Amino acid sequence: MKTNLLYWAALAPNLEAELGLGHRWSVGLEALCAWWSNERAHRYYQLFASGPEVRFRFAGPGRFHGHYVGLYGSAGFYDLENRKTGYQGDFWSAGITYGYQLPVGRSFGVEFAVGAGMIGSSYKTYEPLDGLYVYQQTKRIRYTGLTKARISLLWRFGGKGGRL
């Protein structure tokens, strides 16, 4: 189990479960959800995202230790507004990751990772006006570049108590 501290810094609680598939392969599923709002002031920060990642680990001293590369995909939706123009839509992302997992004890560790790929989104813009949300237009966007960053705390459950 893991949690990304960078998402927490953005007020987005998150959790990831990773399951080993042999000594070098693993698969993870990550989810994050932020649902902040202040109806009176028309402030929203709503976000949900989830997606899998498949990883290949280079030779290392432990099952969840050392360098890895991965392929990931994710999808989600958002509603961002701060008393002005709002942006509401859904998105998808796919790419490759490079990371390193460092054990800090028998069951705990830290993970560092970056990912590059593409994000696509279709969204509607709106303006708050007299307590109503007025639709403005629909837009699409594509971005290619750095798409993911992780500094995660991880802990291992079960097993025979061996090192990460």
Explain what the structure shows.
The chain has one helix at 5-9; strands spanning 2-4, 14-21, 25-38, 43-57, 66-82, 86-103, 108-129, 132-155. It is 3% helix and 74% strand. It has an 8-stranded antiparallel beta sheet. The longest helix is centred in the N-terminal third of the chain and has 5 residues, at 5-9. With 164 residues, it is mainly β. It contains 1 helix and 8 strands.
Architecture blueprint of SSEs:
Layout: E1 2-4, H1 5-9, E2 14-21, E3 25-38, E4 43-57, E5 66-82, E6 86-103, E7 108-129, E8 132-155
Antiparallel strand pairs: 1-8, 2-3, 3-4, 4-5, 5-6, 6-7, 7-8
Largest sheet data: 8 strands, antiparallel
* Fraction of helical residues: under 10%
β-strand percent reads over 45%
Radius of gyration: 19 Å
Q: What is the overall number of helices?
A: 1
Largest beta sheet: what is the strand line-up? 1-8-7-6-5-4-3-2
**Elements, N to C (H/E):** EHEEEEEEE
What tags apply to this protein structure?
164 residues; eight-stranded antiparallel sheet; 3% helix; single chain; mainly beta; elongated
Task: Write a brief caption for the model.
By secondary structure, the protein is mainly beta. It contains one helix and eight strands, in the order E-H-E-E-E-E-E-E-E.
